Amino acid sequence: MSSSPQSQESGATRRSLLASGAGVAIAGAAAGLTYAGRPGSVAAHQSSSGRGSSGSASAEPVPFRGEHQAGIVTPAQDRMHFVALDVVTKDPAELRLLLKEWTRAAERMTYGAEAAPGGVVGGGPYQPPADTGEALDLPPSNLTITIGYGPSLFDGRFGLAGRKPEALHDLPGFVGDDLDPARSGGDLCIQACADDPQVAVHAIRNLIRIGLGVISVRWSQLGFGRTSSTSTSQTTPRNLFGFKDGTANIKAEDSDALTKHVWVDPADVPGNAAWMAGGSYLVTRRIRMHIEVWDRTPLQEQEDIFGRDKAVGASLHLPVDKRDEFAPLDFEAKGADNQPRIPMAAHVRLAHQSQLGGIRILRRGYNFTDGSDGSGHLDAGLFFVAFVRDAHKQFVPMQQALARADVLNEYIEHTGSALFAAPPGLGTDDDWGTQLFG
Ligand SMILES: C=CC1=C(C)c2cc3[nH]c(cc4nc(cc5[nH]c(cc1n2)c(C)c5CCC(=O)O)C(CCC(=O)O)=C4C)c(C)c3C=C
Ligand SMILES: [Fe+2]
């Protein structure tokens, strides 16, 4: 587990918080993780290694409450279901109440309980079940549920205009963008990540169900394989171009980098926007990757495009027998042809902090495949997710540099985009409605 503040809470504290704050009866807490809300013991479902496929310990659920929201520096789980929603009610009280109900349901599901007391069958035969049931026998699987608010939520419909953080305004267009409005924007978002896809999908489905009449789905995205490590405890996964992705990412253990680049500082959000202190801005970009074209590209060209080798993920300046994934990139090193060993338009050079005045971001993206496009090509790519302290000061200049010159652009296309303010974590008796509306 990460060394994030959430994970420092003891299991006993979390269980008692859950019992009081979320109305979930915990049976036999002393004897282990048996949650009465959902039949079956978490311990009984644990893999023999005690580790989920994300490489993080899976015996304990990820704490829902804490200084920061879970699902940001939590070791990236293997699966993601992300949904962007629009608010359809005109009544701020309904939105506020929904956020409170979502808090309760999200906390319960994070701990492996049904979305609501009574859940799947406890409500009796004459009403629809309060939980859809497909996760009934499954362990929590490191589920995290992370909420975010889009710029449009603060447009005046709900009396929130005065609480809008200054940095929460739409991203500009970038050279080469081919954005689909039906895959972009949104009043709200919910990111559910877990090591079991059914657990992530169940969480999103039940939150949508609870919001019937208050919100509607704008777009959603499933991710099947993480493309980042967010903790030094994790191995680096590979993207659909076959390269290790996440090597130089900000890691949960680097608290100085998190403070500088990821968490919103109180000084960033004075006055009525102070509710965002300790939060982070969440950027999504749905990036289609033209994998059929890539698959016809020679290895050396592929490696020059990223600036790292394919086998190890090491900087190209290192000799083959000294390749180390985590050795620093050397942008000055030249090859036998006297040309930079990491080409001037290589992806890692353009995205590196040394070329961007020290800018860094926390990446937390996922591979996706959404069927095919009718022309015999897979609609596959990277659902890019980044968490930053200020998207306009970090993501925007970085993406501008990439859009302008990255050789990778020949093989990719940005088809969706969104920005959300992900609030800080919740204290013991807090809920998302009170946190947002004050
Ligand atoms: C605006 C930010 C970025 C976008 C968009 C982006 C898209 C993208 N990246 C890859 C694959 C790799 N990226 C790698 C490194 C890397 N990428 C970004 C930013 C964006 N990438 C950063 C900040 C970095 C780290 C740079 C550094 O400091 O060294 C790598 C190398 C391994 C790694 O460090 O993670 C790969 C591989 C794809 C395929 C893609 C769009 C589809
Ligand atoms: Fe990248």
UniProtKB/TrEMBL annotation:
<dbReference type="GO" id="GO:0005829">
    <property type="term" value="C:cytosol"/>
</dbReference>
<dbReference type="InterPro" id="IPR048328">
    <property type="entry name" value="Dyp_perox_C"/>
</dbReference>
<keyword id="KW-0732">Signal</keyword>
<feature type="region of interest" description="Disordered">
    <location>
        <begin position="39"/>
        <end position="63"/>
    </location>
</feature>
<dbReference type="InterPro" id="IPR048327">
    <property type="entry name" value="Dyp_perox_N"/>
</dbReference>
<keyword id="KW-0560">Oxidoreductase</keyword>
<dbReference type="InterPro" id="IPR006314">
    <property type="entry name" value="Dyp_peroxidase"/>
</dbReference>
<dbReference type="InterPro" id="IPR006311">
    <property type="entry name" value="TAT_signal"/>
</dbReference>
<dbReference type="GO" id="GO:0046872">
    <property type="term" value="F:metal ion binding"/>
</dbReference>
<comment type="similarity">
    <text>Belongs to the DyP-type peroxidase family.</text>
</comment>
<keyword id="KW-0479">Metal-binding</keyword>
<dbReference type="GO" id="GO:0030313">
    <property type="term" value="C:cell envelope"/>
</dbReference>
<keyword id="KW-0408">Iron</keyword>
<dbReference type="InterPro" id="IPR011008">
    <property type="entry name" value="Dimeric_a/b-barrel"/>
</dbReference>
<dbReference type="GO" id="GO:0033212">
    <property type="term" value="P:iron import into cell"/>
</dbReference>
<protein>
    <recommendedName>
        <fullName>Deferrochelatase</fullName>
        <ecNumber>1.11.1.-</ecNumber>
    </recommendedName>
</protein>
<feature type="compositionally biased region" description="Low complexity">
    <location>
        <begin position="47"/>
        <end position="59"/>
    </location>
</feature>
<dbReference type="Pfam" id="PF04261">
    <property type="entry name" value="Dyp_perox_N"/>
</dbReference>
<dbReference type="Pfam" id="PF20628">
    <property type="entry name" value="Dyp_perox_C"/>
</dbReference>
<keyword id="KW-0575">Peroxidase</keyword>
<dbReference type="GO" id="GO:0004601">
    <property type="term" value="F:peroxidase activity"/>
</dbReference>
<dbReference type="GO" id="GO:0004325">
    <property type="term" value="F:ferrochelatase activity"/>
</dbReference>
<dbReference type="InterPro" id="IPR006313">
    <property type="entry name" value="EfeB/EfeN"/>
</dbReference>
<keyword id="KW-0349">Heme</keyword>
<keyword id="KW-0456">Lyase</keyword>
<dbReference type="GO" id="GO:0020037">
    <property type="term" value="F:heme binding"/>
</dbReference>
<comment type="function">
    <text>Involved in the recovery of exogenous heme iron. Extracts iron from heme while preserving the protoporphyrin ring intact.</text>
</comment>
<feature type="domain" description="Dyp-type peroxidase N-terminal">
    <location>
        <begin position="69"/>
        <end position="224"/>
    </location>
</feature>
<feature type="domain" description="Dyp-type peroxidase C-terminal">
    <location>
        <begin position="236"/>
        <end position="425"/>
    </location>
</feature>
